[in-house]
Specification:
With 568 residues, this protein is of the alpha+beta class. A hairpin with a 4-residue loop joins β25 and β26. It is built from 8 helices and 34 strands. The longest helix is centred in the N-terminal third of the chain and has 85 residues.
Length: 568
């Protein structure tokens, strides 16, 4: 094929160069492919990165938009909630103040006294306040409460004193003291700041039994709304009493502890700071006010308080206070109402059109009030009470205060007050007639009164038809028809002449009168009393022992008459 060896060699060299060129080209092509693949991969990585970054970016924007939408929706719900509550307040200042506090703390409304777990219902100390749910606060343990630096508050008008925390403040009204935690003060400027603890003293309008009955009815009418414990003894600083602790669901929903001391009703309310409240109770001390005195008449079955400087005078069934105000006590059929009793006792001879009983409505279930009234005069030339001339004038309505009163617990009597146009106080916050209470009558109620001017003694004895009076010079006897039951009253110039062979038992005081007490010889019970005054010496003697109990009651009715003449 080739002519010579050189041609063959040239071909081989050419072929070798071609192969080298082809080899290089092939290698170059292969590198280009490799670079292309790498470039494509890098491109894809960049694209994927951009897609992922874009996804996260768009997700963040979407999440932010969603959060803003949810927050705006939540804010709108709260705004609508508070707007509705503002409408509910209807402009009442205390309600609006409580709403402001709720907004500031994002509190929700407490409905029917119920809140979510770890929250409690609260409110301000005023009637129009909203109630809200707030987080429960962890109370200090009792052992951690330091009372050594507490202040002492004393109120002689209310007759009470107690200790309270040093940095707390007090707010006082006529018959109420609020103990205010500074944490709650300044949060509202409404109809009264929220204090949390309140002590109230009032007249005993009902007993603890009646309070328990009321709570039972309230519980039956609204199951689950009333929480109360059993009666238990409550210990004060120097006294103790039975008490009832209870709470009733509602706007303010306090816990109340109620007790009665000296015919006064006390209620102690606390809505917060329970441990502090219970420590305050332990320090309560009841003090006496010297300004007032109490008139008690077991024969008439009434008692009331009055100023000591005021003179009290009794005339039969009437008690005169300070000269020109009075109360009269009348017996009553237990089965008749006050209206029926007044109509029978005063109005049976009067025209029912011109003179009639009119009931006075007052918020007290056990007391009933009424007046004797008449058609009011419309002629301006005459006083409006001019028609009382057609009624029993002394007991009918006039331009001064007059009224009848009965108590369902003491249904055997009623009273008539004749007060006039000015007040005579019986305590710091009540007139004397407002303090009047019905009480149990003693055995001498309804007894006859025997009065002996010569002997100078007045005494009462049972009015059952079995007793008679035997009068002799300087003495008399009260005896029954059957033999042996006899009471002798002797008067002598000297006690030595009257003194029998009896055993001296000591000096006693009966109705502020001094007596010497003896046992009659041979008898176990005391049956002789001696009293000496300017009129002479008096001996009161029971002849038979079994009647000594009755004799003791008769001795409580003894009055000495004509002594003023002798003293002058």
């Amino acid at each position: 094929m080739f002519n010579n060896k050189n041609d063959q060699q040239g071909y081989d060299d050419f072929n070798q160069r071609v192969q080298e060129v082809l080899k290089k080209e092939k290698s170059r092509t292969k590198n280009k492919k490799r670079h292309l693949i790498v470039g494509v991969i890098l491109f894809l990585i960049i694209i994927i990165g951009l897609v992922v970054a874009g996804y996260f970016y768009l997700s963040k924007i979407s999440e932010k938009n969603n959060y803003q939408t949810v927050q705006e929706s939540k804010d709108q719900v709260e705004k609508d909630h508070y707007d509705l509550l503002e409408e509910k307040c209807a402009g009442q200042s205390c309600c609006l103040s409580s709403l402001k506090l709720m907004k500031e703390n994002s509190y929700k409304e407490c409905i029917n006294g119920k809140c979510q777990l770890d929250f409690k219902c609260n409110g301000m100390g005023c009637e129009s306040s909203l109630s809200w749910c707030e987080p429960k606060k962890e109370q200090k343990k009792k052992s951690e409460i330091n009372t050594s630096d507490w202040k002492t508050y004393r109120n002689e008008k209310l007759g009470i004193e107690f200790n309270y925390p040093q940095n707390w403040t007090l707010k006082k009204s006529i018959n109420e003291i609020a103990v205010c935690n500074p944490e709650y003060l300044g949060k509202n400027s409404a109809e009264g700041e929220f204090c949390g603890i309140t002590l109230t003293k009032d007249n005993k309008y009902f007993s603890l039994d009646e309070l328990e009955n009321y709570l039972s009815k309230a519980e039956n009418n609204n199951p689950g709304c009333v929480k109360r414990g059993d009666r238990k003894k409550i210990i004060f600083k120097k006294a103790s009493s039975e008490s009832i602790e209870y709470s009733i669901c509602g706007v303010l929903s306090p816990t109340t502890i109620a007790w009665i001391i000296d015919d006064y009703y006390y209620s102690f309310d606390f809505r917060t700071d329970e441990d502090i409240a219970r420590e305050i109770i332990k320090t309560i001390n009841f003090i006496k006010e010297d300004k007032w005195a109490v008139y008690e008449d077991k024969e008439l079955g009434v008692k009331f308080s009055y100023e000591k400087k005021c003179e009290i005078k009794k005339e039969n069934n009437k008690v005169i206070v300070c000269g020109d105000q009075s109360v009269e006590i009348f017996n009553k059929d237990k089965n008749k109402t006050l209206k029926e009793s007044i109509e029978e006792d005063f109005l049976k001879d009067y025209s029912s059109e011109k003179c009639f009983f009119e009931k006075i409505n007052r918020p007290n279930n056990s007391l009933e009030y009424g007046i004797i009234s008449f058609p009011i005069v419309v002629d301006s030339d005459l006083p409006w009470w001019n028609n009382n001339k057609n009624c029993p004038k002394q007991y009918s309505e006039t331009n001064g205060i007059r009224y009848f009163m009965a108590n369902s617990t003491y249904s055997d009597r009623y009273v008539f007050f004749d007060i006039g146009q000015y007040a005579i106080m019986g305590s710091e916050d009540k007139t004397w007639q407002e303090t009047l209470k019905f009480i149990d009558q003693n055995e001498t109620a309804g007894w006859k009164t025997y009065r002996n001017e010569e002997v100078g003694v007045s005494i009462k004895y049972p009015n059952d038809g079995t007793y008679k009076i035997e009068e002799r010079e300087k003495n008399f006897a009260i005896s029954q028809d059957h033999p042996g039951e006899r009471f002798n009253i002797f008067k002598g110039d000297s006690c030595d002449k009257l003194l029998p062979q009896n055993i001296y038992k000591g000096d006693v005081k009966i109705n502020d009168l001094e007596f010497k007490k003896y046992n009659l010889t041979g008898m176990l019970e005391p049956s002789v009393y001696l009293h000496k005054n300017d009129l002479g010496c008096y001996m009161f003697e029971a002849v038979k022992g079994p009647e000594n109990r009755l004799f003791e009651e008769m001795m409580k009715t003894v009055l000495f008459i004509n002594q003023d003449k002798t003293d002058n």
